[in-house]
Amino acid sequence: MKPKNRNEYSWSILLELLQCDITYPQIFSVYKTDQIKVKAVIHKMHEGVKEAQATDTNKVWREILTLILENPRTDTITMPKPIAKTSYGFNYINTGCLLCPQIYLSDFNANPRFLQKLADGKVEVMASYWPSFLYCQKLHKPNDIESGLMRGYLLLQVFQHIFCSTEDPTKQGGTKCRNVAKINRMHKITGHHIAYAACQTRYALCAKDSWTKRDGAFDMDAFYMAIINLFEEYPDDKWATATLAWWNEQVFSDAEGCVITTAEKQTHPPDSSVAQMAAARAACAKAHAEAAAAVAADTNTELEHETDNM
């Protein structure tokens, strides 16, 4: 298998795992008597994730000055001098505005010196404060922190550039993602997808010239988890469900996501890794269900005895 095809196939498997309620013990239980295979799987997963992230990182930051244009065909900006990544971040007004925490954006727009305060660290920028690029400014209301959040045009354009692009950031389109869905088995947008795109965007905008988890007081890991928690801590929350529906509509032109085709519902040989993992999960789920039923039965029996003795 060619490297490109191998990477696409590996990425599709990783996306499927992210969408499943599956734990690492369940994955590795298939090889519980073979530690060499366990180490090999861990190594392959680690290397694959690193390679995919590095590819996406380079892909985004090299085009970020085009991606920050809401309409790349008509909008223009004054380029930083020199045109180097170390000139981005709070050294450059266009990236600085997008990195500025939303709660300070009105100050940023009103005070020409505010950018320098951010650059000097006089205004601390942390992952706890949502950067303005996460917002659709047209939808945001100052007294409603959720309004417009995770609907920023740049966040969407970076997502499309990573998962849907033809390598030309001026030619993006939601329907193109149907092709990516076929390759990567991506059928619905999740908080993980949005968080990944947000981290890639944040790095591309900052002045760091190599990937780092920290940029001053800003912690990338905390940023990633904070976004995921928005969607996973309260999955039935009105904002969370509406936001994911909006993303599915933008990417797949359908609020419910991309329909799984018959061809994608392929079967796997019983001795294959996929089939063994599925069997292990089914057995685990059955054991949990039986244990829960047994506890419930014992509880009911005790209650009946107590009732009889009253």
| Mean pLDDT value | 81
The count of helical stretches stands at 13
Largest sheet: 2 strands, antiparallel
Low confidence ranges: none
Give the N-terminus to C-terminus distance in angstroms: 72 Å
Per DSSP, what share of the residues sits in E-state strands of 2 or more residues?
A: under 5%
Helix and strand string, N-terminal first?
A: HHHHHHHHHHEEHHH
Approximately how much helix is present in the residues? 55-70%
Rg for CA atoms: 23 Å
Pfam families: DUF6698
InterPro entries: DUF6698
List keywords for this structure.
two-stranded antiparallel sheet; elongated; 310 residues; 13 helices; single chain; mainly alpha; 2 strands
Blueprint (SSEs and pairs):
Blueprint lengths: L2 H16 L5 H5 L6 H27 L2 H4 L25 H7 L5 H6 L3 H7 L32 H11 L13 H8 L6 H15 L8 E2 L2 E2 H13 L5 H15 L20 H37 L1
Antiparallel strand pairs: 1-2
Helix pairs in contact: 3-10, 8-10, 10-11
Describe, in plain words, how this protein is organized in 3D:
The protein has 310 residues and is an all-alpha fold. It folds into two domains: 58-264, no CATH class; 270-310. It contains 13 helices and two strands. It has helices at 3-18, 24-28, 35-61, 64-67, 93-99, 105-110, 114-120, 153-163, 177-184, 191-205, 220-232, 238-252, 273-309; strands at 214-215, 218-219. Strands 1-2 form a two-stranded antiparallel ribbon. Strand 1 (214-215) and strand 2 (218-219) form a beta hairpin. Helix 8 (153-163) crosses helix 10 (191-205) and helix 10 packs antiparallel against helix 11. The longest helix is centred in the C-terminal third of the chain and has 37 residues, at 273-309. The protein is elongated, with a radius of gyration of 23 Å. The termini are far apart. The model has no long low-confidence stretch (mean pLDDT 81). Pfam families: DUF6698. InterPro entries: DUF6698.
